[in-house]
Amino acid sequence: MEIKGVQDFYSDEFAHCYGCGRLNHDGFQIKTRWEGDETVSVYTPRKYHTAMEGFVYGGLLASLIDCHGTGSGALAYAREHGIELTEYNAPRFVTGSLTVNYKKPTPIEGPLEIRGKIKEIKGRKVISEINLWAGGEICVTGEVLAVLIPENFGK
Amino acid sequence: MEIKGVQDFYSDEFAHCYGCGRLNHDGFQIKTRWEGDETVSVYTPRKYHTAMEGFVYGGLLASLIDCHGTGSGALAYAREHGIELTEYNAPRFVTGSLTVNYKKPTPIEGPLEIRGKIKEIKGRKVISEINLWAGGEICVTGEVLAVLIPENFGK
User: Fold this and answer.
1) What is the dihedral of CA B84, B77, A106, A96, to 10 degrees?
2) CA–CA distance from B48 to each of A28, B7, B51 (Å)?
3) What is the phi/psi pair of residue B153, to 5°?
4) Shortest alpha-carbon distance between residue B56 and chain A (Å)
5) Residues of chain B positioned with their CB less than 8 A from the CB of A98
């Protein structure tokens, strides 16, 4: 059974993200869902996503934290406002700022698990604290300030 | 004429980065060089590197700032220590931490220019302040703490 993520509930126009868009077939298509009060995404790096051989490229790790943060923002906002997710009504968040701390080299074998806690929901903003796990250890930590997409985005 | 970047002077074992490794043929292969006292890299996004249609995916922008920061670290450390770059003696930096602020949506057409200023060099650490330009505007700003790779990296 495929576990759906909040990204499966974005409207088509918001579903082209290289990191998490269900309509971007070249991208990572990560899915973010609740597990209790934590948000979870999982991604298995491709063999060429190397920093040094055997370890994951930092830009991919930043990318996963970024998309996990916008997905977490959407989930938290929907829960806070009692929005039941149906196709395709999920709120769409974009990243305002991103901080990533590389604690130790991240092994490239096997899946990476990205887990978030909601630190603050205020108006259109959601802040998440995020840990990225590999091989049973936290390798990267981060924080994302996600913002409900403005009506005039890109205009 | 191909303008070489510091990444062309990394030893083979350090040249597999998805963002900037000359030996990673699936990757971005960005090159970072001096222009006066600023460091510069240029990258043209692929058509599928979208956030929303028409705009660049934030994870790619974070990735470019990340690799630009490690390249800037290598350049600054080499200059500080009077190391003349030859094949393949460049110092190799890895990212300790990364901060990215998304100021405005980044248009996907045309090249992105990433420009860095060295804020601090201290021992094995180099901090760079980085602006990412597109279409004549700064769309993203960031800061990278880069660290000379430890002897025991990944061990």
Assistant:
1) -130
2) 11, 25, 9
3) -50, 125
4) 9
5) 58, 62, 98-100, 102
Residue B103 touches partner A, C-beta closer than 8 Å: no
DSSP code at position B9 = G
Contact A154 B66 (CB under 8 A): no
Architecture field, domain B6-148: Roll (3.10)
The 10s digit of each residue's pLDDT in A58-88 is 999 999 999 999 999 999 999 999 999 998 9
> Domain residue spans in chain A?
6-148
Q: Are B145 and B125 in contact (CB under 8 A)?
A: yes
- Who's near B121: CB < 8 A, 6+ residues apart? B76, B77, B80
A130 touches chain B (CB under 8 A): no
Q: What is the pLDDT of residues B63-114, one digit of tens each?
A: 999 999 999 999 999 999 999 999 899 999 999 999 999 999 999 998 999 9
CB-facing half-sphere around the CA of B103: CA atoms within 13 A: 11
